Amino acid sequence: MADGYVALPNGWERVSADGPGPFVTKEVFRNPEGELVKWRSRAHRKGTGRDEGRSVWRPHAVDWWIGVGFALGSLCFAVAAMASQWASAPRPAIGVTFFVGSLFFTSAAYLQYWEVVNVERGPLHKRARRRLRPASWEPRRIDWLASLIQLAGTLFFNVSCFAGMKHGLDVKQENLRVWTPDAAGSICFLAASELAFAEVCGRWVCLHGRSKSWRITGLNMLGSIAFGVAAVASLIEPSTTEPVSAAIENAGTAIGALCFLAGALMLLPAAKPSPVTSDAAA
Fold it and tell me: Measured between alpha carbons, how far is 185 from 175 in angstroms, rounded to an integer?
């Protein structure tokens, strides 16, 4: 198993590293005092090691803005999908709502990627001032891959939602400009959700219902599956010039958006996990 991205200070020793496949999601270090320090990648990225209470108002935290962005995007998608069930609903307004929601998704996804890129590289959070980076290349990190793939998925949704606002497209144009990027975005969301789920589990699949991180990533996985079903159902059939099933398309989008909304709202409270725990060495 390869080492993770954590750079150890002088006097620290790497004892073990573990994770799904080639990725490292948890490690054990020994500090200069001889204590064993247990480290997990998601907890290290999301937490500071101190309890800040359970306030849902914390605009100083990047994670809070990520939750707000995904929540607003999910709400837009849910409202637009449910409104699409009624023939009397104004189609231009529905298209604009979907597109605005996709922009919220992309903004939140980039913040999530930015958080991953600029995570503290040492085993402990020092709160030292450091130069922030807009991007990086770290494909051996599971969190980096997950956030980049999800960001790519939101960009595909930007394209499909923008094209969906246009009228007068024939079947070929509809499938090429709307369905193809929509399907690609759904595939990206599925892949990113599985990588995020594996980061929490430390393996590809697990059951940890009491873990907040597990519930968040689990909801995102369900939302991604629902979006995938909606994408399949939205394919336009040349023989009828209608989608395979508009009802399934709208229901899948609405269910997926509500799952994403629930997961995003769970990011808002401030109770942060400790990124490391220490045990006295034997």
Answer: 14
